Amino acid sequence: MERCIKAILPPKRPGTKSVVIFDDGTTKKYLPQVAAEQGLFVGMELSEAEYQALEAANSAASAKQRAVRIVSAAAVSRGDLRQRLTQKGESPEDAENAVRWLEELKLLDDAETARQIVARGVSRGYGAERIKQMLYQKRIPRKYWEEALETLPDMREALTDFLQKRLGEEPDEKTIRSATQAALRRGFTWSEVREALERIKSYDFG
């Protein structure tokens, strides 16, 4: 089955796609660079194999374009990017190829992403356990965790400041319990919280 291009509508604005109308009434949207690379023009006839090749080229380019947008907006790992691309509708094959392409361009580095995630957790005042959760959620391979966590500074002062704000001047048992639970949720261990509470007002927590 051959298809003939009846009309090509240019993108309405930067960042949008060209619209290609075929003689059978089919309407497809293609990235401008794909239309140019494939040499599309009105009256051009495409065999089924040529049409499928055009579709594959457009899908691959779409995945790469979306991958660039994602990594430009936030630090992501290979696994995280791959999942986000497939969730957006890209095929697993196109998603994997886009990931490899960005790696080749040195725009995707799990080790560096791990360090950025640790730094982000530190800036938010999180403890090591919460930061480990962040690494897991971002699908950072565990082989990169240890090196990234070595950059984790002493968070005792941050924990003490957090608890002091929660406790106020004369905290009761309920306030102390609430502050303790909040600190635990932020990724600090019970022993770290206990030491911080003792530093603040020498409470006896048995």
Describe the structure.
With 206 residues, this protein is of the alpha+beta class. 24% of the residues are buried. The termini are far apart. Helix content is 59%, strand content 9%. The protein has 10 helices and 4 strands. The longest helix has 26 residues, at 48-73. It has a 4-stranded antiparallel β-sheet with strand order 3-2-1-4. The mean pLDDT is 91. It folds into 3 domains: 3-104, Arc Repressor Mutant, subunit A; 110-149; 156-201.
Write down the overall mean pLDDT.
91
Widest beta sheet: strand line-up: 3-2-1-4
C-alpha termini separation: 81 Å
Helix content: 55-70%
Structural class: alpha+beta
Known CATH architecture of the largest domain: Orthogonal Bundle
Number of DSSP strands? 4
Number of helices: 10
CATH superfamily of the largest domain: Winged helix-like DNA-binding domain superfamily/Winged helix DNA-binding domain
Task: Look at the structure and give the CATH class of the largest domain.
Answer: Mainly Alpha
Radius of gyration: 26 Å
Shape, principal axes of CA atoms: elongated
Low-pLDDT runs of 5+ residues are none
Q: What would the CATH topology of the largest domain be?
A: Arc Repressor Mutant, subunit A
H/E series? EEEHEHHHHHHHHH
